[in-house]
Amino acid sequence: MFKKILIANRGEIALRIIRACKELGIDTVLVHSTIDENSIPVQMADEAICIGPAPSNKSYLSIPNIISAAEISDVEAIHPGYGFLAENTHFAEICESCNIKFIGPGVDSIKLMGDKARAKETMRKAGVPTIQGSDGIVESSDEALKIAKKIGYPVIIKASAGGGGRGMRVAHNDMSLVNAFMTARAEAEAAFGNSEVYIEKLIEEPRHIEFQILADSYGNTIHLGERDCTIQRRHQKLIEEAPSPMLSQGLRQKMGRSAIRAAKAAGYVNAGTVEFLLDKHGRYYFMEMNTRVQVEHPVTEEVTDVDIIEEQIRIAAGEHLRIEQKAVKINGWAFECRINAENVDKGFQPMPGTITGLHFPGGKGIRLDTHIYQGYSIPPHYDSMIGKLIASGRTREEAIARMNRALDEFVIEGIPTTIQFHKQIFNDPNFCSGNYSTHYVDEMIKRQG
Fold first, then answer.
1. pTM of the prediction?
2. Is residue 338 annotated as part of the catalytic site, yes or no?
3. 399 is in which domain, residue-wise?
4. Are both 249 and 265 inside the same structural domain?
5. 3-state SS class at 87
6. Catalytic pick from 16, 292, 314, 402?
7. Which of 6, 65, 221, 350 would staple 75 via disulfide (CB 3.0–4.6 Å)?
Protein backbone atom coordinates (compact mmCIF):
# COMPACT_ATOMS: atom_id res chain seq x y z
CA MET A 1 0.00 0.00 0.00
CA PHE A 2 1.11 3.55 -0.70
CA LYS A 3 2.52 5.63 2.14
CA LYS A 4 1.85 9.04 0.60
CA ILE A 5 -0.51 10.23 -2.16
CA LEU A 6 -0.79 13.60 -3.88
CA ILE A 7 -4.31 14.81 -4.66
CA ALA A 8 -4.47 16.90 -7.84
CA ASN A 9 -7.90 18.41 -7.29
CA ARG A 10 -9.98 20.67 -5.07
CA GLY A 11 -13.34 21.01 -3.33
CA GLU A 12 -15.51 18.13 -2.21
CA ILE A 13 -13.71 15.43 -4.21
CA ALA A 14 -10.36 16.41 -2.71
CA LEU A 15 -11.90 16.13 0.75
CA ARG A 16 -13.48 12.80 -0.17
CA ILE A 17 -10.10 11.37 -1.23
CA ILE A 18 -8.41 12.70 1.93
CA ARG A 19 -10.98 10.87 4.06
CA ALA A 20 -10.41 7.58 2.21
CA CYS A 21 -6.65 7.95 2.60
CA LYS A 22 -6.96 8.60 6.33
CA GLU A 23 -8.92 5.37 6.73
CA LEU A 24 -6.20 3.52 4.82
CA GLY A 25 -3.41 5.10 6.87
CA ILE A 26 -2.02 7.02 3.88
CA ASP A 27 -0.52 10.50 4.20
CA THR A 28 -1.90 13.11 1.79
CA VAL A 29 -0.39 16.02 -0.07
CA LEU A 30 -2.90 18.47 -1.55
CA VAL A 31 -1.94 20.92 -4.28
CA HIS A 32 -3.99 24.09 -4.40
CA SER A 33 -4.33 27.49 -6.02
CA THR A 34 -3.83 30.73 -4.12
CA ILE A 35 -7.59 31.33 -3.87
CA ASP A 36 -8.11 27.91 -2.25
CA GLU A 37 -5.53 28.50 0.46
CA ASN A 38 -8.15 28.64 3.24
CA SER A 39 -10.30 25.78 1.98
CA ILE A 40 -11.24 22.84 4.21
CA PRO A 41 -9.34 20.27 2.09
CA VAL A 42 -6.15 22.31 2.50
CA GLN A 43 -6.66 22.30 6.27
CA MET A 44 -7.42 18.55 6.34
CA ALA A 45 -4.50 17.33 4.24
CA ASP A 46 -1.23 16.31 5.92
CA GLU A 47 0.66 18.64 3.58
CA ALA A 48 -0.47 21.38 1.21
CA ILE A 49 1.49 22.96 -1.62
CA CYS A 50 0.42 26.06 -3.54
CA ILE A 51 0.98 25.51 -7.27
CA GLY A 52 -0.24 28.75 -8.79
CA PRO A 53 -2.88 31.49 -9.01
CA ALA A 54 -6.64 30.97 -9.23
CA PRO A 55 -7.09 30.37 -12.98
CA SER A 56 -7.06 26.59 -13.45
CA ASN A 57 -4.70 26.70 -16.44
CA LYS A 58 -2.09 28.18 -14.10
CA SER A 59 -2.70 25.79 -11.21
CA TYR A 60 -4.91 22.68 -11.36
CA LEU A 61 -4.17 22.18 -15.06
CA SER A 62 -0.47 22.94 -14.80
CA ILE A 63 1.23 19.57 -15.21
CA PRO A 64 4.78 20.87 -14.54
CA ASN A 65 3.67 22.50 -11.28
CA ILE A 66 1.83 19.40 -10.10
CA ILE A 67 4.70 17.05 -10.96
CA SER A 68 7.18 19.38 -9.23
CA ALA A 69 5.00 19.29 -6.11
CA ALA A 70 4.87 15.48 -6.31
CA GLU A 71 8.64 15.20 -6.58
CA ILE A 72 9.29 17.69 -3.78
CA SER A 73 6.92 15.88 -1.44
CA ASP A 74 8.20 12.43 -2.45
CA VAL A 75 4.79 10.85 -3.13
CA GLU A 76 4.28 7.44 -4.67
CA ALA A 77 0.99 8.13 -6.42
CA ILE A 78 -1.33 10.88 -7.65
CA HIS A 79 -5.13 10.79 -7.45
CA PRO A 80 -6.65 13.15 -10.03
CA GLY A 81 -10.27 12.99 -8.79
CA TYR A 82 -12.64 14.04 -11.58
CA GLY A 83 -12.43 16.95 -14.00
CA PHE A 84 -9.18 18.89 -14.50
CA LEU A 85 -6.50 16.30 -15.47
CA ALA A 86 -8.42 13.13 -14.55
CA GLU A 87 -8.73 11.97 -18.18
CA ASN A 88 -5.66 13.69 -19.60
CA THR A 89 -3.45 11.12 -21.33
CA HIS A 90 -0.40 13.39 -21.32
CA PHE A 91 -0.65 13.80 -17.55
CA ALA A 92 -0.96 10.03 -17.06
CA GLU A 93 2.07 9.49 -19.31
CA ILE A 94 4.14 12.06 -17.39
CA CYS A 95 3.24 10.40 -14.09
CA GLU A 96 4.32 7.05 -15.52
CA SER A 97 7.62 8.44 -16.83
CA CYS A 98 8.34 9.96 -13.40
CA ASN A 99 7.66 6.62 -11.69
CA ILE A 100 4.59 8.04 -9.96
CA LYS A 101 1.50 5.83 -9.99
CA PHE A 102 -1.51 7.44 -11.67
CA ILE A 103 -4.59 6.33 -9.72
CA GLY A 104 -6.76 5.57 -12.70
CA PRO A 105 -6.70 3.43 -15.83
CA GLY A 106 -3.73 2.95 -18.15
CA VAL A 107 -2.85 5.49 -20.81
CA ASP A 108 -4.06 3.25 -23.66
CA SER A 109 -7.51 2.88 -22.10
CA ILE A 110 -7.83 6.63 -21.53
CA LYS A 111 -6.84 7.32 -25.14
CA LEU A 112 -9.20 4.72 -26.55
CA MET A 113 -12.25 5.76 -24.52
CA GLY A 114 -11.45 9.46 -24.92
CA ASP A 115 -11.81 9.09 -28.68
CA LYS A 116 -15.57 8.59 -28.89
CA ALA A 117 -15.53 7.36 -32.48
CA ARG A 118 -12.84 4.72 -31.77
CA ALA A 119 -14.58 3.75 -28.55
CA LYS A 120 -17.83 3.14 -30.41
CA GLU A 121 -16.09 0.95 -33.00
CA THR A 122 -14.36 -1.02 -30.23
CA MET A 123 -17.70 -1.66 -28.55
CA ARG A 124 -19.31 -2.72 -31.80
CA LYS A 125 -16.56 -5.30 -32.36
CA ALA A 126 -16.97 -6.52 -28.76
CA GLY A 127 -20.68 -7.15 -29.26
CA VAL A 128 -21.85 -4.27 -27.08
CA PRO A 129 -24.98 -2.60 -28.57
CA THR A 130 -24.20 0.75 -30.21
CA ILE A 131 -26.32 3.48 -31.76
CA GLN A 132 -26.65 3.57 -35.55
CA GLY A 133 -24.50 6.31 -37.07
CA SER A 134 -21.25 7.18 -38.83
CA ASP A 135 -18.47 4.61 -38.91
CA GLY A 136 -16.00 7.17 -37.61
CA ILE A 137 -15.13 10.84 -37.92
CA VAL A 138 -17.32 12.88 -40.29
CA GLU A 139 -15.12 15.22 -42.32
CA SER A 140 -17.64 17.45 -44.11
CA SER A 141 -21.22 18.66 -44.07
CA ASP A 142 -21.81 16.83 -47.38
CA GLU A 143 -20.77 13.56 -45.75
CA ALA A 144 -22.95 14.39 -42.76
CA LEU A 145 -25.98 14.88 -45.05
CA LYS A 146 -25.42 11.50 -46.70
CA ILE A 147 -25.25 9.74 -43.30
CA ALA A 148 -28.36 11.52 -42.02
CA LYS A 149 -30.27 10.51 -45.15
CA LYS A 150 -29.24 6.90 -44.59
CA ILE A 151 -30.13 6.62 -40.88
CA GLY A 152 -32.98 9.15 -40.83
CA TYR A 153 -33.66 12.25 -38.74
CA PRO A 154 -33.37 13.34 -36.01
CA VAL A 155 -29.60 12.94 -35.58
CA ILE A 156 -27.08 14.21 -33.05
CA ILE A 157 -23.59 15.48 -33.84
CA LYS A 158 -21.05 14.76 -31.10
CA ALA A 159 -17.47 15.87 -30.49
CA SER A 160 -15.15 12.87 -30.70
CA ALA A 161 -13.08 14.21 -27.80
CA GLY A 162 -16.13 15.57 -26.03
CA GLY A 163 -17.81 15.48 -22.67
CA GLY A 164 -20.06 17.53 -20.41
CA GLY A 165 -22.48 18.28 -23.23
CA ARG A 166 -20.03 20.44 -25.18
CA GLY A 167 -19.71 19.95 -28.94
CA MET A 168 -23.17 18.35 -29.18
CA ARG A 169 -25.93 19.50 -31.53
CA VAL A 170 -29.25 17.99 -32.64
CA ALA A 171 -30.57 18.30 -36.20
CA HIS A 172 -34.06 17.53 -37.50
CA ASN A 173 -33.58 18.32 -41.20
CA ASP A 174 -30.93 19.07 -43.85
CA MET A 175 -30.82 22.80 -43.15
CA SER A 176 -30.40 22.45 -39.40
CA LEU A 177 -27.84 19.67 -39.91
CA VAL A 178 -25.40 21.86 -41.85
CA ASN A 179 -25.60 24.58 -39.20
CA ALA A 180 -25.36 22.05 -36.33
CA PHE A 181 -22.35 20.36 -37.93
CA MET A 182 -20.40 23.61 -38.23
CA THR A 183 -21.38 24.75 -34.73
CA ALA A 184 -20.45 21.42 -33.12
CA ARG A 185 -17.03 21.45 -34.83
CA ALA A 186 -16.33 25.00 -33.65
CA GLU A 187 -17.42 24.18 -30.08
CA ALA A 188 -15.31 21.02 -30.06
CA GLU A 189 -12.24 22.91 -31.25
CA ALA A 190 -12.71 25.60 -28.61
CA ALA A 191 -13.40 23.19 -25.75
CA PHE A 192 -11.05 20.29 -26.52
CA GLY A 193 -8.59 21.52 -29.15
CA ASN A 194 -10.03 18.86 -31.46
CA SER A 195 -12.74 19.68 -34.02
CA GLU A 196 -13.50 16.07 -34.98
CA VAL A 197 -17.15 15.02 -34.74
CA TYR A 198 -19.27 11.98 -35.49
CA ILE A 199 -23.01 11.44 -36.04
CA GLU A 200 -25.54 9.16 -34.37
CA LYS A 201 -29.25 8.54 -34.65
CA LEU A 202 -30.93 10.55 -31.88
CA ILE A 203 -32.60 8.30 -29.33
CA GLU A 204 -35.84 10.10 -28.44
CA GLU A 205 -37.12 10.15 -24.84
CA PRO A 206 -34.10 8.20 -23.54
CA ARG A 207 -32.99 7.30 -20.04
CA HIS A 208 -29.32 7.79 -19.16
CA ILE A 209 -28.14 4.64 -17.38
CA GLU A 210 -24.55 4.04 -16.30
CA PHE A 211 -22.83 1.06 -14.71
CA GLN A 212 -20.04 1.38 -12.14
CA ILE A 213 -17.05 -0.80 -13.02
CA LEU A 214 -14.15 -2.00 -10.89
CA ALA A 215 -11.30 -3.89 -12.54
CA ASP A 216 -7.94 -5.01 -11.14
CA SER A 217 -4.64 -5.79 -12.86
CA TYR A 218 -5.26 -9.55 -12.74
CA GLY A 219 -8.18 -9.76 -15.16
CA ASN A 220 -10.95 -9.48 -12.56
CA THR A 221 -13.75 -7.11 -13.58
CA ILE A 222 -17.07 -6.53 -11.80
CA HIS A 223 -19.90 -4.01 -11.86
CA LEU A 224 -21.65 -2.46 -8.85
CA GLY A 225 -25.01 -2.05 -10.49
CA GLU A 226 -26.42 0.96 -12.27
CA ARG A 227 -27.12 4.62 -11.67
CA ASP A 228 -29.95 6.48 -13.38
CA CYS A 229 -28.65 9.91 -14.42
CA THR A 230 -31.59 10.96 -16.56
CA ILE A 231 -32.35 14.27 -14.78
CA GLN A 232 -30.05 16.70 -16.60
CA ARG A 233 -29.83 20.27 -17.82
CA ARG A 234 -27.71 21.12 -20.87
CA HIS A 235 -26.48 17.48 -20.94
CA GLN A 236 -25.10 17.86 -17.40
CA LYS A 237 -26.51 15.81 -14.54
CA LEU A 238 -28.53 17.31 -11.69
CA ILE A 239 -29.92 14.25 -9.90
CA GLU A 240 -28.76 10.63 -9.87
CA GLU A 241 -30.24 7.54 -8.28
CA ALA A 242 -29.34 3.92 -7.71
CA PRO A 243 -30.77 1.61 -8.74
CA SER A 244 -32.87 2.74 -11.73
CA PRO A 245 -36.66 2.45 -11.47
CA MET A 246 -36.76 1.44 -15.15
CA LEU A 247 -34.63 -1.74 -15.02
CA SER A 248 -35.99 -5.21 -14.38
CA GLN A 249 -33.60 -7.67 -12.77
CA GLY A 250 -33.19 -9.39 -16.13
CA LEU A 251 -32.32 -6.17 -17.97
CA ARG A 252 -29.98 -5.15 -15.15
CA GLN A 253 -28.04 -8.40 -15.50
CA LYS A 254 -27.93 -8.09 -19.29
CA MET A 255 -26.67 -4.49 -19.20
CA GLY A 256 -24.20 -5.36 -16.45
CA ARG A 257 -22.70 -8.10 -18.60
CA SER A 258 -22.41 -5.64 -21.49
CA ALA A 259 -20.68 -3.13 -19.21
CA ILE A 260 -18.12 -5.73 -18.14
CA ARG A 261 -17.60 -6.73 -21.78
CA ALA A 262 -17.02 -3.05 -22.64
CA ALA A 263 -14.45 -2.63 -19.85
CA LYS A 264 -12.59 -5.76 -20.91
CA ALA A 265 -12.58 -4.65 -24.56
CA ALA A 266 -10.90 -1.43 -23.44
CA GLY A 267 -8.29 -3.31 -21.36
CA TYR A 268 -9.62 -1.34 -18.41
CA VAL A 269 -8.07 -1.32 -14.93
CA ASN A 270 -9.34 0.72 -11.92
CA ALA A 271 -12.74 2.38 -11.40
CA GLY A 272 -14.73 3.52 -14.41
CA THR A 273 -18.26 4.00 -15.69
CA VAL A 274 -19.87 2.56 -18.78
CA GLU A 275 -22.72 4.81 -19.92
CA PHE A 276 -25.76 3.67 -21.90
CA LEU A 277 -28.86 5.23 -23.39
CA LEU A 278 -32.04 3.25 -22.75
CA ASP A 279 -34.95 3.84 -25.12
CA LYS A 280 -38.64 3.62 -24.27
CA HIS A 281 -38.78 0.08 -25.67
CA GLY A 282 -36.14 -1.24 -23.28
CA ARG A 283 -33.33 -1.31 -25.84
CA TYR A 284 -29.98 -0.01 -24.66
CA TYR A 285 -26.97 1.40 -26.49
CA PHE A 286 -23.38 2.16 -25.50
CA MET A 287 -22.77 5.90 -25.26
CA GLU A 288 -19.31 6.34 -23.70
CA MET A 289 -16.99 5.24 -20.92
CA ASN A 290 -15.77 7.67 -18.29
CA THR A 291 -12.23 6.73 -17.30
CA ARG A 292 -12.34 8.18 -13.78
CA VAL A 293 -14.41 8.26 -10.63
CA GLN A 294 -17.79 9.90 -11.23
CA VAL A 295 -19.27 12.82 -9.33
CA GLU A 296 -22.24 10.59 -8.51
CA HIS A 297 -20.29 7.64 -7.08
CA PRO A 298 -21.80 8.10 -3.56
CA VAL A 299 -25.22 6.71 -4.56
CA THR A 300 -23.56 3.44 -5.57
CA GLU A 301 -21.59 3.38 -2.32
CA GLU A 302 -24.80 3.82 -0.32
CA VAL A 303 -26.58 0.84 -1.91
CA THR A 304 -23.58 -1.52 -2.15
CA ASP A 305 -21.53 -0.55 0.93
CA VAL A 306 -18.41 -0.45 -1.26
CA ASP A 307 -15.98 2.46 -0.84
CA ILE A 308 -15.16 3.21 -4.48
CA ILE A 309 -12.34 5.66 -3.74
CA GLU A 310 -10.68 3.14 -1.43
CA GLU A 311 -11.01 0.44 -4.10
CA GLN A 312 -9.40 2.79 -6.63
CA ILE A 313 -6.39 3.20 -4.37
CA ARG A 314 -6.13 -0.51 -3.57
CA ILE A 315 -6.26 -1.46 -7.26
CA ALA A 316 -3.61 1.15 -8.14
CA ALA A 317 -1.41 -0.28 -5.37
CA GLY A 318 -1.55 -3.66 -7.08
CA GLU A 319 -4.08 -5.44 -4.90
CA HIS A 320 -6.65 -7.94 -6.14
CA LEU A 321 -10.34 -7.02 -6.12
CA ARG A 322 -11.75 -7.94 -2.73
CA ILE A 323 -15.25 -8.71 -3.98
CA GLU A 324 -16.63 -11.07 -6.64
CA GLN A 325 -19.63 -10.29 -8.84
CA LYS A 326 -21.86 -12.82 -7.07
CA ALA A 327 -21.19 -11.05 -3.76
CA VAL A 328 -22.37 -7.64 -5.03
CA LYS A 329 -25.77 -6.88 -3.48
CA ILE A 330 -27.98 -3.85 -4.10
CA ASN A 331 -29.66 -2.90 -0.81
CA GLY A 332 -32.23 -0.13 -0.72
CA TRP A 333 -32.29 3.06 -2.78
CA ALA A 334 -30.25 6.27 -2.92
CA PHE A 335 -30.51 9.69 -4.57
CA GLU A 336 -27.94 12.43 -5.07
CA CYS A 337 -28.75 16.10 -5.66
CA ARG A 338 -25.94 18.21 -7.05
CA ILE A 339 -26.10 21.49 -5.16
CA ASN A 340 -24.84 24.20 -7.48
CA ALA A 341 -24.28 27.90 -6.89
CA GLU A 342 -26.49 28.87 -9.82
CA ASN A 343 -29.43 31.10 -10.64
CA VAL A 344 -32.03 28.71 -12.06
CA ASP A 345 -34.21 31.58 -13.34
CA LYS A 346 -31.30 32.83 -15.45
CA GLY A 347 -30.67 29.57 -17.25
CA PHE A 348 -28.64 28.00 -14.42
CA GLN A 349 -26.12 30.83 -14.59
CA PRO A 350 -23.20 30.28 -12.15
CA MET A 351 -23.34 32.77 -9.27
CA PRO A 352 -20.16 32.88 -7.17
CA GLY A 353 -20.25 34.82 -3.92
CA THR A 354 -19.92 34.57 -0.15
CA ILE A 355 -22.03 32.25 1.98
CA THR A 356 -23.47 34.39 4.77
CA GLY A 357 -25.64 31.77 6.45
CA LEU A 358 -25.52 27.97 6.48
CA HIS A 359 -27.34 25.03 8.02
CA PHE A 360 -26.59 21.45 6.98
CA PRO A 361 -29.29 18.74 6.96
CA GLY A 362 -28.85 15.55 8.95
CA GLY A 363 -30.67 12.54 10.31
CA LYS A 364 -30.94 8.92 9.29
CA GLY A 365 -30.04 8.14 5.70
CA ILE A 366 -28.53 11.55 4.92
CA ARG A 367 -24.99 12.13 3.63
CA LEU A 368 -23.50 15.45 2.53
CA ASP A 369 -20.25 15.65 0.56
CA THR A 370 -19.20 19.30 0.56
CA HIS A 371 -16.32 21.65 1.27
CA ILE A 372 -18.29 24.80 2.02
CA TYR A 373 -18.68 26.61 5.35
CA GLN A 374 -20.27 29.83 6.60
CA GLY A 375 -18.15 32.73 5.36
CA TYR A 376 -16.73 30.68 2.48
CA SER A 377 -16.36 32.66 -0.75
CA ILE A 378 -17.14 30.60 -3.83
CA PRO A 379 -14.55 31.50 -6.47
CA PRO A 380 -15.67 32.24 -10.04
CA HIS A 381 -12.85 30.21 -11.59
CA TYR A 382 -14.18 26.66 -11.16
CA ASP A 383 -17.27 24.50 -11.53
CA SER A 384 -20.39 25.82 -9.79
CA MET A 385 -21.07 22.61 -7.82
CA ILE A 386 -20.61 23.25 -4.10
CA GLY A 387 -21.94 20.03 -2.64
CA LYS A 388 -23.70 16.72 -3.10
CA LEU A 389 -26.69 15.83 -0.94
CA ILE A 390 -27.31 12.08 -0.75
CA ALA A 391 -30.40 10.45 0.74
CA SER A 392 -30.87 6.69 1.09
CA GLY A 393 -33.68 4.45 2.28
CA ARG A 394 -35.00 0.92 2.17
CA THR A 395 -37.29 1.81 -0.75
CA ARG A 396 -37.42 4.50 -3.42
CA GLU A 397 -40.35 6.11 -1.63
CA GLU A 398 -38.45 6.26 1.66
CA ALA A 399 -35.37 7.74 -0.04
CA ILE A 400 -37.55 10.40 -1.71
CA ALA A 401 -39.15 11.28 1.63
CA ARG A 402 -35.73 11.63 3.26
CA MET A 403 -34.43 13.78 0.41
CA ASN A 404 -37.46 16.05 0.75
CA ARG A 405 -36.80 16.40 4.48
CA ALA A 406 -33.10 17.10 3.91
CA LEU A 407 -33.78 19.70 1.20
CA ASP A 408 -36.18 21.47 3.58
CA GLU A 409 -33.48 21.55 6.27
CA PHE A 410 -30.68 22.69 3.93
CA VAL A 411 -30.14 26.45 4.19
CA ILE A 412 -27.53 28.37 2.20
CA GLU A 413 -27.75 32.17 2.37
CA GLY A 414 -25.86 34.83 0.43
CA ILE A 415 -25.92 33.08 -2.94
CA PRO A 416 -28.60 31.50 -5.17
CA THR A 417 -28.51 27.70 -5.35
CA THR A 418 -30.37 24.83 -7.01
CA ILE A 419 -31.89 23.65 -3.69
CA GLN A 420 -35.36 25.08 -4.41
CA PHE A 421 -35.33 23.58 -7.90
CA HIS A 422 -34.50 20.17 -6.45
CA LYS A 423 -37.46 20.55 -4.06
CA GLN A 424 -39.78 21.11 -7.02
CA ILE A 425 -38.48 17.98 -8.75
CA PHE A 426 -38.81 15.76 -5.67
CA ASN A 427 -42.42 16.89 -5.25
CA ASP A 428 -43.33 16.36 -8.89
CA PRO A 429 -45.61 13.34 -9.52
CA ASN A 430 -43.84 12.44 -12.77
CA PHE A 431 -40.49 12.25 -11.04
CA CYS A 432 -41.85 10.38 -8.04
CA SER A 433 -43.43 7.80 -10.35
CA GLY A 434 -40.22 7.44 -12.36
CA ASN A 435 -41.95 8.68 -15.50
CA TYR A 436 -39.43 10.96 -17.22
CA SER A 437 -36.67 11.18 -19.84
CA THR A 438 -33.57 13.34 -20.37
CA HIS A 439 -35.93 16.11 -21.57
CA TYR A 440 -37.56 16.32 -18.13
CA VAL A 441 -35.87 19.55 -16.94
CA ASP A 442 -36.51 21.41 -20.21
CA GLU A 443 -40.17 20.34 -20.13
CA MET A 444 -40.48 21.36 -16.47
CA ILE A 445 -39.10 24.84 -17.18
CA LYS A 446 -41.48 25.25 -20.13
CA ARG A 447 -44.45 24.33 -17.92
CA GLN A 448 -43.40 26.99 -15.43
CA GLY A 449 -43.32 29.57 -18.25
1. 0.91
2. no
3. 207-448
4. yes
5. coil
6. 292
7. 6
